[in-house]
Amino acid sequence: MASLDRVKVLVLGDSGVGKSSLVHLLCQNQVLGNPSWTVGCSVDVRVHDYKEGTPEEKTYYIELWDVGGSVGSASSVKSTRAVFYNSVNGIILVHDLTNKKSSQNLYRWSMEALNRDLVLTGVLVTNGDYDREQFADNQMPLLIIGTKLDQIHETKRHEVLTRTAFLAEDFNAEEINLDCTNPRYLAAGSSNAVKISRFFDKVIEKRYFLREGNQIPGFPDRKRFGGTLKSLHYD
Q: A GO molecular function for this record (predicted)?
């Protein structure tokens, strides 16, 4: 196969929300049998057809960088994570629908990635509120994904999804809620699959086609990260 252009998408969220399972499902179209904690960063690749079915169709690599750790980590850990935030073209923010704190922490994750030099304080999340001005000038394509939908009883789903719906509005992003142990949530032609495709198209457009966008250099040399990256698949 000829060399393909590529974009880099961060996958951020608290430990245990299901980022690794989500990435595996997106890239391999299979359920991850034995998920484990991500140490450092794990990278997998999805082949995506930009503007599929149109004369502009072109195939790209979507590199999904699953960043491990906790948003409340010590500054030394955050400094180590900062290396993964270079040359980013898009961000998927992942939260556990059964864990309200993981939803609130998405603001801190996004600010850590978008503004690495910013000292995070309670101004972002205080009693469930946050300062929307922090994201007023953000041009980074974002997608919100809620996991573990299967663990919410049907009688509680409306309440939970109503509570988390504000995330999409706050981040000016589309929202997907799913169960990473069931591939049907991302089945071809489904509304979730359409949202995923639309997000990746937006990331590619921002990287390669919008003149006012940042023309970011290519993917950094993997050697920079030593043994930190657990995997990089181009299957």
A: GTP binding
